[in-house]
């Protein structure tokens, strides 16, 4: 422990240390010379393509995949075209970008997954250089062609190719970029490129020249550039050996005129100072604010630098090292003569072996951080085990198919099941369904046993994987385990099991989902089959009817026809008739409605509709003859209008033809005559026969027209039951009192009493006496 | 703002807060200034969740009503459409997006579907070629909206019609989803009872949804003990009857929408002394009605005949309180008096408002027409002459009274007679068609389909049995100091509430026979609670039941349930939920078809 600081190298305020992670397990005959190398970040796997440029057809280059510790995972001869660049996606898939712009995707175990192209024009002009980059949207690919045009895709899983604008004509003869990097900023992906001393930012629409502050023309042409892991920092290297890292005082003269082979940012979150690692053939240099003394490390073998979140991995054929800034807390513990608490604690531990007990006395200190840190350290130790090879997060663990270990880790770290174990199981099941040597039956059983009803594992997701691998039968078997019927629908549709999809959608109760399947079926099937399918699903059928009511009236009719639903058909024609402006078409639609009502054995509606047609014809006739303006009025309103026009005979005709009840007609005529103040007519009418509505109505209607004398004429004809009311209506209190007393009814007496003014003592007494007598009975 | 939601047995403000939080989160997703384009139907319900101030805090600068054509200009970064998932609205949105001037004002578009996004609608937008123009397409799950401390409504107007006429169970799916949300906030409801086809369907969906989320167990101590799901068609009678509670009458006469009522302004004119009231206000007076208003909470559920007394009692208390100022002698006393002044003034203006409303209503309830109508209703409910053509209805038709009134009465007679004889039914129908127009044949067909009008089948009329067993008619209903729920209709006890009451005690087993006469299955389901969540009930602690009316509920029914909650020995408190708050008029209206309006 005394030598813990032996490999610390000071640079300005900070220290840098280089520690060995692994002695590599691999045995590379020619080292890393003449290789394309790509290592995934976060301690990820390493891919090697040997001698990619040799194009003799007899010797194919070999593609090899190793874990970070150098354990071979896969190896196969490269049979496709020449590769320009290798790279890893965020989910540990290997991207091989070929000269012709096609990108081949392999999984961690070297099996081919799919491929895509970076565009037609790329194919012609060939890829000069390519870069794989990561952003919150996923993994992206950027390429530059021999004709100096950039094309990029921000997310290869949702491929949208963007061709960047051309760099404007410049003095530089070649036109091709000297060096470039991809930046992602504010949800935008841009390319920064240099063309000699000039610097441009390219985005989808524009090309803007930029001048880095403090980088004068005397600094020379930019020959190398690097962007930090977080895309926040930029380093430029010029042909005069100067390095620029953002602001003028960070301009460093490396005194090296050859451009470095690699230049990588080396910083950690909360870093004390930014610094850049530069690598030349036999030298590694850490460059920071101050140049002297900059840590330099000699290199024996060709190496590859991998930028990480918190340092730089250096991979050589023999070993793998991590170069990083020493964290401040470590510095404080181990710096000479440090009095920081950590240092004191360490000293105490050394002296008394008691420091680990010390934490017991820190009453205000929550032990949780300590416990979880220990737990995480143990896990990281376990996964650094050579056989596993270094991944840092449990997601990475899962992708490496160490399922039991991953589950153990989840449980150990107490990650909630639906975030931890379930995700591992899901991944496992998705791989399981791809095992070609097992039968559908066996796989379905295995998946069901392991996954059971773990929360958050979607069987439809697993089934989708099975379908993708060309195993529809297995997919269906797996879908049966899916509890959420709604989730099953999209896949079933994709698999063309539309009937099943429909019944699952109905089962879910989600009507929108039913609609979705129905619209899908409509476009997929011929009309007959479509209708038949709906017929077997009443819920779907009624929903589709609803849809048609709003959107496709004609289809609605066909649906009713198919079901022989004559009642609804008739209603349909009735509705349609009201949309018609022309009377002939209206009548013919109504006639069809009558026929349908008859077929539906709805006698009443058939007759009513016939009546309606008769009325319409009658109205038109009168409109033609007399210009009465009747069309569209109800029967009652028609009679009313006729009476108002004095066309009594025609009104009477309707009354008879349509068998209008006497009562209603009497009311109508009574009101109409009173309104026109034809009092003689009214009296004649009242005597035409015994009134079916009684004579109180006559009294009230006359009073409403303010004709008391006429009203009085009818009082005597009112039945005894209503006589009090009639007398009161015409304001004849005496008469009302007489009638009430005669009838000995307390409620009627009370009604008269209520209207009786206090001044009329005599009448009041008489009524009170009668009321008392009535009450006695 | 919404404190009255938290006064009740169940703090419904939690639901409102959850809804507000979600709204804020969505608004923040669209960074920068924004304008909201409203589907007009949504503004009322949204008003109960969030006022304009909340929207403003989240940079909503403008609000428009959704209509076809071009969007009004507004210097904002985002345009957000708040819409129900309806195809016709999608077409309007597409038109809006198309006519946007893309060169001058690049604005970001978003859609918020309420209460649920719809693939059908998105497909429509895609067909119209505008789907890609939207940056965010989201859903705002607003199923159950808190209306008061004990009342939730979905305000889904067409729910009854869709369920019973069109066999479209969308509203039931939303109901089940809403109940799942409610359970997520208030714990799993251990017992579910139900009566009716729709109730069965909702319960099935709930149980299925619970299975689907089997993994994530709800760890909230259940607030509700029981859920009772009731189909509206189990009790078609109650909404047809004229409600006689204060709130019920306000709704019958003026219509309450989203907690507000609009009243004729004359009675509310500010009369200053010595000034002739020459310029009467012409705008209707808009009042908010909920339990936040102390006086209203006190009188809303009373029979209207008891409201007058309550108001005059209140008047005395208030004037006594104002008189107190003369007794205030010391500075301290005066200070205390002054501090109570705002509260007293609010009480006084509240009293003035309700006195005016009560006067307006009284003018109507004392009219002969109202009395005659009520008499006939009560005759039907007590089974007098329900099998003959009713003279009063005939007269009303002859006088061309509003069609809905006629439909309400005829439906009521049919329901109380378990259907009408062919001759009687045909007579009424002819009367209606000849008087109001043949186009109403569609409406009549609808009413028959919904069971409101019915041809008497050979089986005997079982309404009297139901009436007697459930004691639906109480001769001596006490309107002033009620001792039974029948006070809400001055004699008629709403069937739906009787079923609820019997379920609590002595249980439905005692009325098996009657339950069989009512349509649809009745059932009971239990939902397992995780260990440790079983309530340990205190001695005498009330149980809580959520009564969900599928297809709508009337204010009088709500009043009756509140009455049961307050009864000392009931041991049960009720929270009420529904697809729609309704009365006979709005209900019948929702079932009408007007072909002529389609032609325009």
TrEMBL record, chain A:
InterPro entries: VPS16, Vps16_C, Vps16_C_sf, Vps16_N. Signal peptide: none annotated. GO terms for cellular component: CORVET complex; HOPS complex; late endosome membrane; lysosomal membrane. The keyword Hydrolase does not apply. It holds the Pfam family Vps16_C. Residues 5-353 form the Vps16 N-terminal domain. Keywords: Endosome, Lysosome, Membrane, Protein transport, Transport. One of its GO terms (biological process) is endosomal transport. Residues 457-769 form the Vps16 C-terminal domain. Its main location: membrane. One of its GO terms (molecular function) is actin binding. It is found in: Late endosome membrane; Lysosome membrane. It is a peripheral membrane protein. Belongs to the VPS16 family. Plays a role in vesicle-mediated protein trafficking to lysosomal compartments including the endocytic membrane transport and autophagic pathways. Believed to act as a core component of the putative HOPS and CORVET endosomal tethering complexes. Core component of at least two putative endosomal tethering complexes, the homotypic fusion and vacuole protein sorting (HOPS) complex and the class C core vacuole/endosome tethering (CORVET) complex. Their common core is composed of the class C Vps proteins VPS11, VPS16, VPS18 and VPS33A, which in HOPS further associates with VPS39 and VPS41 and in CORVET with VPS8 and TGFBRAP1. Interacts with RAB5C. Interacts with STX17, MON1B. Associates with adapter protein complex 3 (AP-3) and clathrin:AP-3 complexes. This is Vacuolar protein sorting-associated protein 16 homolog. It comes from Sander lucioperca. The lineage of its organism: Eukaryota, Metazoa, Chordata, Craniata, Vertebrata. The gene is vps16.
TrEMBL record, chain B:
GO terms for cellular component: autophagosome; clathrin-coated vesicle; early endosome; late endosome membrane; lysosomal membrane. It comes from the Eukaryota. It is found in: Cytoplasmic vesicle, Autophagosome; Cytoplasmic vesicle, Clathrin-coated vesicle; Early endosome; Late endosome membrane. The keyword Protein transport applies. It is a peripheral membrane protein. InterPro entries: Sec-1-like_dom1, Sec-1-like_dom3a, Sec1-like, Sec1-like_dom2, Sec1-like_sf, VPS33_dom3b. SUPFAM superfamilies: Sec1/munc18-like (SM) proteins (SSF56815). Its main location: cytoplasm. Plays a role in vesicle-mediated protein trafficking to lysosomal compartments including the endocytic membrane transport and autophagic pathways. Believed to act as a core component of the putative HOPS and CORVET endosomal tethering complexes which are proposed to be involved in the Rab5-to-Rab7 endosome conversion probably implicating MON1A/B, and via binding SNAREs and SNARE complexes to mediate tethering and docking events during SNARE-mediated membrane fusion. This is Vacuolar protein sorting-associated protein 33A.
């Amino acid at each position: 422990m005394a030598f813990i600081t032996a490999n610390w190298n000071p640079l300005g305020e900070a220290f840098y240390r280089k520690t060995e992670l692994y002695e590599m397990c691999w045995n590379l005959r020619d080292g890393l010379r003449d290789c394309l190398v790509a290592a995934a970040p976060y301690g990820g796997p390493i891919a090697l393509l040997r001698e990619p440029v040799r194009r003799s057809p007899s010797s194919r280059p070999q593609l090899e995949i190793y874990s970070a510790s150098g354990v071979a995972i896969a190896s196969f001869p490269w049979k496709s075209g020449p590769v320009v660049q290798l790279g890893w996606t965020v989910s540990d898939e290997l991207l091989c970008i070929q000269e012709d712009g096609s990108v081949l995707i392999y999984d961690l175990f070297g099996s081919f997954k799919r491929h895509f192209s970076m565009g037609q024009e790329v194919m012609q002009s060939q890829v000069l250089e390519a870069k794989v980059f990561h952003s919150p949207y996923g993994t992206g690919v950027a390429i530059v062609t021999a004709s100096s045009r950039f094309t990029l895709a921000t997310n290869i899983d949702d491929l949208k190719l963007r061709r960047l604008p051309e760099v404007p004509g410049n003095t530089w003869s070649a036109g091709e970029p000297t060096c470039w990097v991809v930046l992602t900023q504010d949800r935008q992906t841009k390319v920064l490129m240099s063309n000699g001393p000039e610097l441009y930012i390219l985005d989808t629409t524009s090309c803007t020249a930029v001048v880095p502050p403090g980088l004068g023309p005397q600094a020379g042409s930019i020959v190398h550039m690097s962007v930090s892991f977080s895309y926040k920092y930029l380093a430029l290297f010029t042909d005069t050996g100067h390095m620029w890292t953002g602001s003028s005082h960070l301009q460093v003269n490396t005194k090296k005129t050859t451009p470095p082979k690699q230049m990588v940012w080396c910083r950690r979150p909360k870093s004390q100072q930014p610094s850049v690692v530069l690598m030349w053939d036999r030298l590694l240099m850490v460059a920071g604010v101050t140049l002297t003394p900059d840590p330099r490390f000699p290199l024996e073998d060709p190496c590859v630098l991998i930028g990480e979140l918190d340092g730089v991995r250096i991979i050589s054929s023999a070993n793998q090292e991590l170069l990083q800034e020493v964290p401040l807390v470590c510095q404080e513990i181990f710096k000479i003569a440090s009095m920081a608490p950590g240092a004191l604690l360490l000293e105490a531990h050394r002296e008394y072996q008691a420091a680990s007990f010390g934490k017991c006395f820190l009453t205000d200190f929550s032990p949780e951080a300590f416990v979880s840190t220990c737990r995480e350290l143990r896990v990281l130790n376990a996964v650094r085990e050579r056989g596993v090879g270094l991944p840092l997060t449990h997601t990475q663990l899962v992708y490496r198919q160490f399922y039991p270990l991953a589950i153990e880790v989840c449980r150990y770290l107490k990650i909630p099941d639906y975030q931890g174990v379930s995700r591992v199981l899901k991944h496992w099941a998705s791989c399981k369904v791809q095992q070609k040597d097992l039968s559908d039956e066996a796989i379905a059983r295995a998946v069901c046993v392991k996954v059971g009803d773990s929360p958050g594992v979607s069987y439809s997701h697993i089934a989708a994987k099975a379908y993708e691998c060309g195993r529809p039968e297995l997919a269906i078997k797996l879908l049966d385990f899916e509890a959420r019927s709604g989730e099953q629908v999209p896949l079933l549709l994709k698999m063309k099991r539309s009937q099943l999809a429909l019944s699952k959608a109905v089962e879910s109760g989600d009507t929108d989902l039913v609609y979705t399947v129905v619209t899908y079926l409509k476009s997929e099937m011929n009309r007959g089959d479509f209708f038949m399918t709906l017929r077997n699903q009443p819920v779907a059928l009624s929903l589709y009817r609803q849809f048609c009511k709003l959107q496709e009236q004609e289809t609605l009719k066909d649906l009713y026809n198919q079901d022989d639903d004559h009642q609804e058909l008739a209603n349909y024609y009735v509705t349609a008739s009201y949309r018609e402006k022309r009377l002939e078409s209206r009548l013919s639609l109504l006639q069809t409605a009558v026929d349908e009502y008859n077929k539906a054995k709805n006698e009443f509606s058939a007759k009513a509709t016939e009546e309606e047609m008769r009325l319409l014809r009658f109205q038109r006739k009168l409109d033609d003859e007399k210009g009465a303006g009747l069309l569209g009025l109800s029967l009652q309103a028609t009679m009313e209008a006729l009476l108002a026009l004095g066309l009594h005979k025609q009104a009477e005709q309707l009354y008879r033809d349509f068998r209008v009840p006497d009562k209603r007609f009497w009311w109508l005529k009574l009101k109409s005559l009173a309104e026109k103040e034809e009092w003689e007519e009214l009296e004649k009418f009242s005597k035409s026969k015994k009134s079916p509505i009684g004579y109180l109505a006559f009294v009230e209607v006359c009073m409403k027209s303010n004709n008391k004398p006429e009203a009085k004429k009818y009082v005597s004809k009112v039945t005894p039951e209503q006589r009090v009311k009639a007398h009161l209506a015409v304001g004849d209190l005496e008469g009302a009192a007489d009638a009430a007393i005669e009838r000995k009814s307390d409620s009627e007496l009370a009604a008269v009493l209520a209207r009786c003014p206090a001044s009329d003592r005599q009448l009041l007494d008489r009524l009170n006496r009668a009321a008392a007598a009535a009450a006695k009975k | 703002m919404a404190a009255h939601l938290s006064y009740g047995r169940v703090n419904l403000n939690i639901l409102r807060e959850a809804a507000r939080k979600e709204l804020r989160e969505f608004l923040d997703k669209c960074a920068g200034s924004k304008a909201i384009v409203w589907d007009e139907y949504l503004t009322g319900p949204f008003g109960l969740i969030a006022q304009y101030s909340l929207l403003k805090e989240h940079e909503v600068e403008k609000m428009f009503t959704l209509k076809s054509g071009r969007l009004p200009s507004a210097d904002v970064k985002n345009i957000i459409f708040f819409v129900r998932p309806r195809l016709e609205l999608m077409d309007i949105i597409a038109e809006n997006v198309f006519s946007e001037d893309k060169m001058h004002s690049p604005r970001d578009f978003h859609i918020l579907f309420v209460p649920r996004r719809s693939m059908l609608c998105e497909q429509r937008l895609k067909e119209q070629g505008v789907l890609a123009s939207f940056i965010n397409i989201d859903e705002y799950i607003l199923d159950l909206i808190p209306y008061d401390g004990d009342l939730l409504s979905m305000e889904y107007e067409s729910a009854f019609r869709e369920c019973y006429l069109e066999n479209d169970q969308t509203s039931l799916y939303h109901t089940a989803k809403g109940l799942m949300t409610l359970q997520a906030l208030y714990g799993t409801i251990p017992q579910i009872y139900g009566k009716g086809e729709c109730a069965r369907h909702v319960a099935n969906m709930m149980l299925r949804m619970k299975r689907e989320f089997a993994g994530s167990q709800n760890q909230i101590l259940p607030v509700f003990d029981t859920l009772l799901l009731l189909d509206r068609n189990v009790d078609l009678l109650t909404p047809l009857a004229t409600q006689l509670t204060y709130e019920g009458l306000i709704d019958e006469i003026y219509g309450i929408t989203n907690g507000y009522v609009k009243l004729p302004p004359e009675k509310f004119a500010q009369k200053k002394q010595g000034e002739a009231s020459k310029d009467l206000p012409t705008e209707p007076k808009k009042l908010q009605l909920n339990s936040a208003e102390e006086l209203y909470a006190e009188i809303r559920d009373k029979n209207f005949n008891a409201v007058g007394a309550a108001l005059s009692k209140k008047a005395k208390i208030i004037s006594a309180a104002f008189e107190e100022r003369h007794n205030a002698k010391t500075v301290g006393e005066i200070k205390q008096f002054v501090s109570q002044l705002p509260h007293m003034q609010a009480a006084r203006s509240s009293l003035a408002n309700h006195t005016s409303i009560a006067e307006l209503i009284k003018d109507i309830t004392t009219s002969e027409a109202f009395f005659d109508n009520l008499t006939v209703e009560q005759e039907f409910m007590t089974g007098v002459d329900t099998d003959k053509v009713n003279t009063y209805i005939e007269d009303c038709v002859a006088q061309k009274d509003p069609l809905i009134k006629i439909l309400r009465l005829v439906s009521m007679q049919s329901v109380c007679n378990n259907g009408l004889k062919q001759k009687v039914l045909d007579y009424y129908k002819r009367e209606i068609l000849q008087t109001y127009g043949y186009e109403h044949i569609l409406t009549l067909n609808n009413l028959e389909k919904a069971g409101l009008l019915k041809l008497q089948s050979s089986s005997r009329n079982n309404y009297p049995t139901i009436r007697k067993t459930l004691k639906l008619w109480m001769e001596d209903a006490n309107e002033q100091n009620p001792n039974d729920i029948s006070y809400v209709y001055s004699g008629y006890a709403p069937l739906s509430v009787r079923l609820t009451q019997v379920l609590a005690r002595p249980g439905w087993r005692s009325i098996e026979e009657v339950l069989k006469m009512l349509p649809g299955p009745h059932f009971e389901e239990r939902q397992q609670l995780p260990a440790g969540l079983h309530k340990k009930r205190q001695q005498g602690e009330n149980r809580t039941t959520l009564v969900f009316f599928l297809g709508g509920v009337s204010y009088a029914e709500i009043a009756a349930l509140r009455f049961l909650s307050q009864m000392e020995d009931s041991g049960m408190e009720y929270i009420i939920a529904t697809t729609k708050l309704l009365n006979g008029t709005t209900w019948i209206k929702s079932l009408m078809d007007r072909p002529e309006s389609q032609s325009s």
